[in-house]
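Worked example 3 (structure in, sequence out).
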């Protein structure tokens, strides 16, 4: 069944930001005295809020991070985005096809509105979503709680059961399932088994997304 609303996560779904952000995050955490690599950062923190990262690192350290840690991290990350960031291959075409079908779209991310404005702007995707950007900062609880997806659906004027979420993280899939929404997991570079086990249908190419939503006649078999 074609959904009434498609809710996109941002990082790793629309913009290819995870590798960049996790590299800078690993460097910033390691600078505090805790050795951590890019892969471990991704495993531990992907899909969550930056505050969740800060709380975890402070728990590891047993003390607060320096007052300027967040500002320094965001400044270095954003500079790297400006020089390196690209859209996820096929994302623009997929969003265009969904919109052309008359299906509503929005973005619901753990990131801040400022971060979404930056990354979607840098990659040429910003204009597709108008005012329909929703951040975890707008709700009481971030992913894996369902708040952000329920909030997005309410603001857009759709019932949860008429929505499909496009995610790439376990936290995000868990949140979407808890919201009572169908969830498709984009897993181009990672094994999708854990996302499927959490309740998602996985796919490996954005070109497959319209078909999975019932928007064209080419409905491919799910990856995995």
């Amino acid at each position: 069944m074609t959904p009434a609303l498609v809710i996109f996560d941002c990082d790793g779904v629309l913009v290819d930001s995870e590798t960049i952000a996790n590299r800078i995050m690993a460097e910033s955490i390691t600078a505090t005295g805790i050795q951590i690599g890019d892969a471990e950062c991704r495993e531990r923190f992907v899909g969550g809020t930056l505050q969740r990262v800060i709380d975890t690192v402070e728990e590891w350290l047993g003390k607060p991070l320096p007052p300027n840690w967040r500002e320094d991290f965001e400044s270095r990350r954003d500079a790297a985005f400006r020089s390196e960031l690209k859209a996820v291959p096929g994302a623009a075409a997929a969003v265009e096809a969904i919109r052309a079908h008359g299906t509503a779209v929005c973005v619901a991310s753990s990131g801040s509105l400022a971060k979404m404005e930056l990354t979607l702007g840098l990659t040429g995707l910003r204009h597709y979503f108008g005012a329909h950007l929703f951040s975890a900062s707008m709700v009481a609880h971030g992913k894996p709680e369902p708040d952000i997806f329920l909030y997005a659906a309410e603001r857009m004027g759709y019932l949860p059961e008429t929505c499909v979420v496009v995610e790439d993280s376990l936290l995000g899939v868990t949140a979407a399932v808890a919201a009572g929404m169908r969830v498709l997991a984009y897993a181009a570079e990672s094994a999708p088994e854990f996302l499927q086990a959490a309740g998602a249908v996985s796919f490996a190419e954005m070109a497959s997304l319209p078909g999975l939503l019932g928007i064209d006649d080419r409905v491919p078999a799910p990856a995995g």
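Notes: Residues 5-16+86-212 form a domain with the Rossmann fold fold (CATH 3.40.50.1000). The longest strand covers residues 104-109.
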